[in-house]
Specification:
mainly alpha
Length: 286
C-alpha cells in the first residue's frame, strides 16, 4: 500500500499473534493495524512531533473501536473463544476450520480498512505542554530504547512507531505497552524474516512456535514463542495482569491524561524497568 518494505518491523511482530504469544490479550491483527496506521503517517509525525503522535493515537483508538464494533472484541481470547496455551485450544482453532477462517477473514477486512485510511487527513491540534515533565513517556518505546542501549540491538523505526501501544493500544486498555516492547525487542533477535523465507519454512516455523506455546520444554532452537512465553508469565506475576486497564485501574481517553499518569506512576516506571530487564536477560542468554 505504501510502496516501502520494513522487514525489521515485521520481524518484531513475529509472536504478537494469539494476543501476544498466545496469551489472549490484544489481537495481533489489532496491534499490526495500529502500527500500520502509524507507518502511514510517519512523515507527518516527524514533521509535527508530539502533536502528530497525539493525532495518530486518536486514529488508532478509532481503528480499535471500529474493530470492536465489527468483530466483537479487540481481545483474542474473547474474539476466538480458544486458549492457545492448551493443546485442546490449538486443535480447536484449526479444526474444523471455522476459527482460523474467521481470523483470516478479519485480517482481510483490516487490510481493506487500512487501504481506505491511506489518504485520510489527520486532525492535528495543539496539546497541553509537557515542558514541566520533559519529553513524553511511551511504555513500549522506553522498553525498546533500554534494550537497545544495553544489548546494542534495536530499530529506530520500531521505536518511533511503538508509541501506539500507549494506554493499551490507542488508550483502549489492551496489552500493556511495556510487555509488548519486551516481546518485540526479543523478536528483533529471534523473530522470523518472513520475506526471506519460503512457504514451507514459514509453515514449519509457525508450527514449532505453536507447539512451544503448549509444551513445558521447547523443541528446536530458541525462537520467538518459546522465548516470549516465560516473559509473559513473569510479567503477569509481577504486574498482576497483562492489560493496561487492569494494571492501572484507569481508563485513558487522550494524550494528556495518559501522560499525566505515566509521568507520575511508580508502578508503570517499575514495569518498564522490569520488562526491559527481562528481555535483555533472554537476549544475552542466546
Amino acid at each position: 500500500m505504501m510502496g516501502r518494505r520494513e522487514d525489521t518491523l515485521l520481524r518484531a511482530f513475529t509472536s504478537l499473534q494469539g494476543g501476544v504469544v498466545g496469551s489472549g490479550s490484544t489481537c495481533g491483527v489489532v496491534t499490526g493495524g495500529a502500527v500500520g496506521l502509524a507507518l502511514m503517517h510517519d512523515s507527518l509525525m516527524q514533521e509535527k512531533g508530539v502533536a502528530g503522535e497525539a493525532a495518530v493515537l486518536s486514529l488508532v483508538g478509532e481503528y480499535a473501536n471500529w474493530f470492536e464494533r465489527n468483530f466483537g472484541s479487540c481481545f483474542c481470547r474473547e474474539r476466538t473463544g480458544v486458549n492457545f496455551r492448551t493443546l485442546r485450544g490449538q486443535l480447536r482453532h484449526f479444526i474444523p476450520g471455522d476459527k482460523v477462517g474467521k481470523c483470516l477473514w478479519h485480517s482481510r477486512a483490516v487490510a481493506r480498512h487500512m487501504y481506505s485510511c491511506r489518504e485520510k487527513d489527520l486532525v492535528v491540534v495543539d496539546i497541553e505542554s509537557n515542558e514541566a515533565q520533559g519529553e513524553p513517556i511511551h511504555c513500549a518505546q522506553a522498553v525498546l530504547r533500554r534494550i537497545r542501549e544495553e544489548t546494542g540491538i534495536g530499530d529506530s523505526l520500531l521505536e518511533r512507531l511503538s508509541f501506539v501501544f500507549d494506554g493499551g493500544v490507542g488508550f483502549r486498555g489492551g496489552v500493556c505497552g511495556a510487555l509488548a516492547g519486551s516481546i518485540m525487542g526479543v523478536n528483533l533477535l529471534a523473530g522470523m524474516n518472513i520475506r526471506d523465507m519460503s512457504y514451507w519454512q514459514t509453515l514449519k516455523a509457525c508450527g514449532v512456535g505453536h507447539i512451544n506455546m503448549v509444551t513445558e520444554k521447547p523443541i528446536g532452537a530458541a525462537e520467538s514463542f518459546s522465548l516470549g512465553k516465560p516473559i509473559v508469565h513473569r510479567f503477569r506475576d509481577k504486574a498482576g495482569a497483562t492489560e493496561c486497564a487492569a494494571i492501572t485501574e484507569k481508563e485513558f481517553s487522550d494524550w494528556t491524561g495518559f501522560q499525566r499518569h505515566i509521568s507520575s506512576s511508580d508502578k508503570c516506571k517499575g514495569l518498564i524497568e522490569f520488562a526491559a530487564a527481562e528481555a535483555c536477560k533472554v537476549m544475552k542468554s542466546m
